[in-house]
Amino acid sequence: MYPQRELIRLAAYKAALRRDIGLRRSYCATAASRLAQPVAWLDRMVAVVRQLSPVAWFAAVPLGISVQRTVSPRMKILGSLLRWGPLVVNAARGFGSILRRSGESSNRSQRKV
Fold first, then answer.
1. Is 74 helix (H, G, I), strand (E, B) or coil?
2. Segment 33-64, tens digit of pLDDT
3. d(CA 71, CA 77)
4. Cα dihedral value 83, 87, 90, 96, nearest 10
5. Which domain covers residue 44, as residue numbers?
6. Whether residues 68 and 106 fall in one domain
7. Around Cβ 102, how many Cβ atoms within 10 Å?
8. Are 74 and 34 in contact (CB under 8 A)?
């Protein structure tokens, strides 16, 4: 058996170790929440875009062109967004479907094992 003094020392070490683990968990949770903020924002934006009907996409192009001409004729950013926006949206959809398919195939391979 252990002597009483060594048991007290081990109990103090255990308490200190648990405190350190708790602090590190809180640091990790804080860091994870900071890292997840852009992902949450992107997720909200994807949800908003998915709620738009296809007709809204067709209406947005002429509306964007008219706004660009009336509000700021020298602003080139809106024209670039209108030109490259559909390409970026379609690429994001393609990557999303690829990621979903790869997730399904990895789940299938894990089930077989």
1. coil
2. 998 888 888 888 888 877 776 777 777 777 77
3. 13
4. -120
5. 1-51
6. yes
7. 10
8. no
Give Cα 21 distance to the centre of its chain: 27
On the question of pLDDT at 82 being above 90, the answer is no
**pLDDT, position 74:** 58
Residues contacting 78, CB < 8 A, separation 6+: 64, 67, 68, 72
Residues 111 and 60 in one domain: yes
CA nearest neighbour of 33 among 44, 41, 22, 21: 41
Shared-domain flag, residues 70 and 105: yes
| Residue located via tokens 């350190």 | 20
pTM over cut 0.85: no
